[in-house]
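Batch manifest line 88
LIGAND: iron/sulfur cluster
JOB: complex structure
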Amino acid sequence: MPAPSNHTSFQDAAWQKAICGICPAGCWVEVKKENGRLVDIRPDAGHPLGMICRRGEHAPEIVYSEHRLKYPMKRKGPKGTHAFERIS
Ligand code: SF4
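JOB STATUS: finished
ARTIFACT:
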């Protein structure tokens, strides 16, 4: 096993069991984090519900996408104008 570096603790570098939260199916997965940030994901081979779909494989991109909604939004103009305002 690799020794911890200055940038990543040993625990952060290890794969951890988790539930994929990208959709409501909640598949059993293992995730790898670096500096507290999700960097990779794979099926949990030790569980019967361990699987991952193509969307789940892209979980790190989805979670940190700059286009992801971060706040509840309310439409403030006519439909189709794509004008929204943050409501909290
Ligand atoms: S792996 Fe796919 S199906 Fe399973 S919870 Fe994630 S997004 Fe949903």
